[in-house]
Structure formats: structure tokens, C-alpha cells
């Protein structure tokens, strides 16, 4: 039997401070001045923590991938705010030692291209494993810093592209090793498996016009054209990634909505919807099972925010009524019904 790996893939976007928005997935509270904001933030952090911990317990994945935007204000956080956010994240997304947690950088973690710098990149990589090529049980996963795929020749961008070219050579070498032994030289060969590509920004597509499903973008938004290097990667960067890495599957986040797109010679890209109530009433994540030659993906919906709130409000109303009845400030419905019945019988 061919070995397989079970993976939980989450499109994350977290943290709120002041009036800042919470994004795809998890985490952290900064200072907020109004109680309503604090209540909303704690509610959504509670939702994400409980959803993640329940998914770990129920599905028991071997690997968890988070597709960026772990911190909403990571792009401008002070050192102390960053440390506080990291501590909060590690509490909410705690996991057993045997579970691999891999995170890619998003624009809210290190900033868009014009905001990011070496300090922010290194700060992020100090917390989250910077390894770009991750092989597990014969399966290759490539984690791309898509924020650095600007293509303008900046130092960070050039370094990111050079790293991906090196990975491309390693992958090509591993696939040719069977026919050309020793071609990899001193480097240990990788599993001869086409990689799974994980990144924050989706590959280039014009819009979400062809996306469908309950968790796709609202119909009114689907036809809005995407802006290259802001909503999606540029055409050029997308072509490079597909050509260099020859992935069999691409998993991305950023848009907060679900979508499936075929690129090039039938390479499937799945945009994973938001994990947070802040962005969707119906958050979800992807559970995947992978072998070196195949994969199966299943979407895992989480409780809807309106359903949970309605349930709690209904339970609270019932509790209030029972309390009032107990302290005799409100007549028992059974007592009222019994009196009406007696009155009806005597007439």
C-alpha cells in the first residue's frame, strides 16, 4: 500500500487592534479602546481556537499548513507587539509535537512588496520555519514567499527567485535520478514526486467570475477584475512558478473566498476560504490526503456565525425565563395554562 500523508490546510488571517480588520484565520489582540471591538475580537479568536483544536482532535492531521496573514498588523508591529502576537498565536494554535505546522508569509505579516524589508522577513522566519522545500513521506511541498514574487529585481525578490530556482533544480534532478544515477551529485535526491505548491497570493487570474459554490465570492464581486501584484500574482510570476516547479497542485489564500482554477496543462489551483468569522459567516478549511502520485481534498465547513449566535441567544432567553419563573417574578407557563383550562371547564 502506498504511504499517504494527511494534511490540514488553513487560509489564515488574524489579529485585530483598534479598528483593524481580522483576516483569514487566527490570532492576536492588540490594544482596543471600545468594548464592542474587544467583545467581537474575543468571540472570533475563541471561534478560531476552538475550530483548530477540534480539527486536530477529530481529524488528527500529520501536517498543518497555514497560508499566510497570521498577523493583521505584522507589517508595522513594534518588537513588543510582535512578541505578544506570537505568544497569542502559539497559544491558540498549539499542537502536539508530532504534528508539523508550516506557515507561509502573507502581506499582513511582512507587508506588501513596497512595505517589506529584510528585518520583517527575518522576524517572521525566526518564528516560523523558513524551509521552502518540505518533503514528508515521499511527498514534496514547496512553500513560496509570494510577497517577494514582484519581479522587479529587488534584493529580497532576487534572493527568493534564486532559492526557487535551486529547488527547481533539485526537483528536476530527483525525477531524472532513476534514468541518470549520480546526476544529483553530493546532494541527497528528493522523492521523485511532482510538488504541491503552497503560497499566500493566488496565481494570476482575471477575476473570480468562473468561481462557484456557497463559499465563493458574492455574485456582485465575482466579476471585479483582480489587480496584479495586489490581489493575485503577476502573469510573469505565475508563469515562472508553473514552469520552474511543475506543481501537480497549487493551494493559495488571500482572497478570503473559495475558488478552483485550472492553469496551463491542467494544473489545479484551490483558493482556500477564510478560517475566521471576521471575513465569512461560513468559514472552512481543507483536509487533504496525499500520496507521491495522487491526492484527495475535502472541504471542512465550520459552524456558521449566525447559527451559533442564534443558538446562544435562544439559550440565554430560555435561561432568563426559567430564572424569572423560579424567583416568582414571572408566572409559570404551565401554571397559566392550568388556570386557563380550569376557567374554561367551569364556564
From TrEMBL:
Signal peptide: none
Assembly, per entry: Interacts with GPI-anchor proteins (via the GPI portion). Interacts with TMED10.
Protein name: Metallophosphoesterase 1
Membrane-related topology note: Multi-pass membrane protein
SUPFAM superfamilies cross-referenced by the UniProt entry: Metallo-dependent phosphatases
Main subcellular location of this protein, as a coarse class: endoplasmic reticulum
UniProt KW keywords: ER-Golgi transport, GPI-anchor biosynthesis, Hydrolase, Manganese, Membrane, Metal-binding, Transmembrane, Transmembrane helix, Transport
Family: Belongs to the metallophosphoesterase superfamily. MPPE1 family.
Transmembrane segments: 309-331
Xref: Pfam families: Metallophos
Cofactor: Mn(2+)
Role noted for this protein: Metallophosphoesterase that catalyzes the removal of a side-chain ethanolamine-phosphate (EtNP) from the second mannose of the GPI-anchor protein intermediate. Participates in the glycan remodeling steps of GPI-anchor maturation to allow an efficient transport of GPI-anchor proteins from the endoplasmic reticulum to the Golgi.
Domain Calcineurin-like phosphoesterase residue range list: 59-257
Subcellular location: Endoplasmic reticulum-Golgi intermediate compartment membrane
Entries under InterPro entries matching the protein: Calcineurin-like_PHP, Metallo-depent_PP-like, MPP_MPPE1, PGAP5/Cdc1/Ted1
Amino acid at each position: 500500500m502506498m504511504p499517504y500523508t494527511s494534511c490540514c490546510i488553513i487560509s489564515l488571517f488574524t489579529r485585530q487592534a483598534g479598528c483593524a480588520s481580522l483576516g483569514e484565520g487566527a490570532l492576536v489582540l492588540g490594544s482596543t479602546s471600545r468594548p464592542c471591538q474587544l467583545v467581537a475580537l474575543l468571540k472570533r479568536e475563541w471561534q478560531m481556537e476552538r475550530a483548530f483544536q477540534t480539527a486536530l482532535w477529530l481529524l488528527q492531521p500529520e501536517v498543518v499548513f497555514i497560508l499566510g496573514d497570521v498577523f493583521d498588523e505584522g507589517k508595522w508591529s513594534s518588537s513588543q507587539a510582535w512578541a505578544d502576537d506570537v505568544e497569542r498565536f502559539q497559544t491558540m494554535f498549539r499542537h502536539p509535537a508530532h504534528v508539523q505546522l508550516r506557515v507561509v508569509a502573507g502581506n499582513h505579516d511582512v507587508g506588501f512588496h513596497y512595505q517589506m524589508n529584510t528585518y520583517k522577513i527575518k522576524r517572521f522566519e525566526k518564528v516560523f520555519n523558513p524551509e521552502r522545500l518540505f518533503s514528508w513521506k515521499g511527498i514534496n511541498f514547496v512553500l513560496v514567499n509570494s510577497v517577494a514574487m514582484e519581479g522587479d529585481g529587488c534584493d529580497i525578490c532576487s534572493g527568493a527567485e534564486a532559492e526557487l530556482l535551486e529547488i527547481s533544480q533539485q526537483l528536476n534532478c530527483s525525477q531524472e535520478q532513476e534514468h541518470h544515477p549520480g546526476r544529483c551529485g553530493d546532494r541527497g535526491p528528493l522523492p521523485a514526486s511532482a510538488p504541491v505548491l503552497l503560497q499566500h497570493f493566488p496565481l494570476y487570474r482575471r477575476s473570480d467570475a468562473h468561481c462557484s459554490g456557497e463559499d465563493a465570492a458574492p455574485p456582485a464581486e465575482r466579476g471585479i477584475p483582480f489587480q496584479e501584484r495586489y490581489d493575485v500574482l503577476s502573469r510573469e510570476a505565475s508563469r515562472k512558478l508553473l514552469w520552474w516547479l511543475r506543481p501537480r497542485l497549487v493551494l493559495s489564500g488571500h482572497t478570503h473566498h473559495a475558488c478552483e482554477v485550472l492553469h496551463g496543462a491542467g494544473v489545479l489551483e484551490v483558493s482556500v476560504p477564510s478560517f475566521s468569522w471576521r471575513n465569512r459567516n461560513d468559514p472552512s478549511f481543507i483536509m487533504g490526503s496525499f500520496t507521491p502520485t495522487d491526492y484527495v481534498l475535502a472541504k471542512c465547513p465550520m459552524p456558521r456565525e449566525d447559527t451559533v449566535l442564534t443558538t446562544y441567544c435562544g439559550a440565554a432567553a430560555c435561561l432568563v425565563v426559567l430564572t424569572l419563573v423560579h424567583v416568582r417574578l414571572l408566572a409559570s407557563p404551565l401554571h397559566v395554562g392550568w388556570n386557563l383550562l380550569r376557567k374554561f371547564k367551569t364556564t
